[in-house]
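Fold tokens
===========
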Amino acid sequence: MREFMRIKLIGGAWAMLPFALSLAGAADPIPDSLAPPAGLKRLADLNADGVQIYRCGPPKDAAGAPAAVWNFESPRATLTDAQGKPAGRHYAGPTWEAEDGSKITGKIAARAAAPDPQAIAWLLLKTESSGKAGRFDPVRAVQRVFTSGGSAPAGACATVGEVLEVPYRAVYVFWVQ
């Protein structure tokens, strides 16, 4: 029997929250554990508005578990600058792609719980170029901070293969050599 995937969008009251990440930054400083490597310089702070995508299936880290859970699959977000102009996109890999087509992929180097327990974790990612030369080509680290939303629901899910898109917002800070 073929299973069909359903896509759900979690929103409701969350979508009504203002995008005031700069205010969050004043109240919740970035932990020292997420500091970029020494010698790197800040290139840009870009706002992300998108979804974290989860798929219902067996737990990835517990073979033989009796219940299916929401497993993280990938992000999908639009990146904008401080003036709200398009600056790129963020997607599976994790990958960040600038408007000029340059892109980087990352691996998590450090993680810190977000101040909001309903928000996805703050991260430091080490990156490398995976595309043509351009704006993101020299980026060697990315911080994901001041997150809002994006966490999967706790507990079991009902239909294996079902996809859930959870809205999130964050600031990505790009660091270059």
In short: The chain has one helix and nine strands. Confidence is low (pLDDT under 50) at residues 1-26. The longest strand covers residues 41-57.
